Backbone:
């Protein structure tokens, strides 16, 4: 992939994010411009933009996996906070679970209750596809978050992070730091190696490095846990006496990664994280860590799902689009956070 093609792809993803995160406004043109009509969309519900004004009360069912790591906990908190901001939204939260059968039964209950919309981050997208189709066939729009269903008929809208884009962003940053050092040793610490999301991240990383003449010298996998990150990194550091840069796919496991680095007394390299935890952002702010950057994988996806479900259930349109309705698929941008811009991302950071 050439640099120009990659930048075009990232620009398109950024534009999609901007459309989603800007306030939602009506497609009805104002009769005359006044202070209320020209109010910034960024003011959100408190600012009283047209789509954020209270409408018909709707009930949204929300289901997500257990909050067994920081990112997933942040996903649920953000969704609950978003729903709380709308007086016309009644949120019914299913018990968080990693049991596929239990999550299916929760969606069945939402269908039986006749909720107006469902926001679903499935523990397993394939396993939840059939029940999501049942909800759709019952006339209940489903907003699929993060882990995709295996059928396009299972969701009215899908909102995703950009795993491939994470790898591209991390690789591009490393290329910028290492310049023309074609012999640089670049290490990669994956999450769970056989997951499609991990493979997408690695593919994007390899493509970006290739664009500047670099490649991954050594690759280890952890399991998205602190202990797994520490073990994998200890093995990596023992195998590689000299490293120039490391990309760690996940900031939750990054706590263990940093512990292993500290224990080994190694600091000849710089490191890039992944996801955007507050812990990592504080490391970046400190200026005295090998951790120089992280790549955002938004923990606000389910909150965006709540906003989209509300728009769909109330037959409203997304702001800044000439077309009617809410897009079927929205993929969020994966920006790089460094000491230069960390302040603007602290608000969406999560604790590992």
Residues:
């Amino acid at each position: 992939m050439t640099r120009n093609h990659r930048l075009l792809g990232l620009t398109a993803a950024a534009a999609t994010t901007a459309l989603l995160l800007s306030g939602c406004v009506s497609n009805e043109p104002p009769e005359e411009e006044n202070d209320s009509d020209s109010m910034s969309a960024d003011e959100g519900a408190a600012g009283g933009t047209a789509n954020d004004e209270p409408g018909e009360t709707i009930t949204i069912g929300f289901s997500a996996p257990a909050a067994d790591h920081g990112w997933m906990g942040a996903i649920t908190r953000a969704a609950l906070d978003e729903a709380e901001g709308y007086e016309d939204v009644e949120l019914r939260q299913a018990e968080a679970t990693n049991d596929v059968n239990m999550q299916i039964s929760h969606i069945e209950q939402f269908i039986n209750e006749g909720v107006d919309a469902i926001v679903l981050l499935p523990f397993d997208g394939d396993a939840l596809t059939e029940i999501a189709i049942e909800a759709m066939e019952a006339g209940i729009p489903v907003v699929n978050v993060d882990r995709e269903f295996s059928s396009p008929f299972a969701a009215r809208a899908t909102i995703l992070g950009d795993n491939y884009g994470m790898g591209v962003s991390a690789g591009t940053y490393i290329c910028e730091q290492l310049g023309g050092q074609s012999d640089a040793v670049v290490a990669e610490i994956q999450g769970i190696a056989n997951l499609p999301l991990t493979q997408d991240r690695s593919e994007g990383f390899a493509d970006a490095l290739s664009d500047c003449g670099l490649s991954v010298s050594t690759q280890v996998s952890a399991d998205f846990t602190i202990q797994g990150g520490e073990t994998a990194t200890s093995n990596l550091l023992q195998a590689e006496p000299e490293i120039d840069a490391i990309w760690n796919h996940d900031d939750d496991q990054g706590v263990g990664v940093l512990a292993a680095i500290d224990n080994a007394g190694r600091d000849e390299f710089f490191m890039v994280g992944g996801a955007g935890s507050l812990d990592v952002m504080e490391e970046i702010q400190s200026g005295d860590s090998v951790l120089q950057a992280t790549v955002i994988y938004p923990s606000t996806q389910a909150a965006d799902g709540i906003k989209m479900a509300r728009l769909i259930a109330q037959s409203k349109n997304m702001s800044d689009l000439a077309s009617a309705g809410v897009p079927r698929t929205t993929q969020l941008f994966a920006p790089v956070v460094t000491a230069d811009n960390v302040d603007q991302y602290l608000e969406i950071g999560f604790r590992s």
User: Anything to note?
Assistant: The radius of gyration is 21 Å. Residues 1-48 have pLDDT under 50 and may be disordered. Residues 283 and 289 are 6 Å apart (CA to CA).
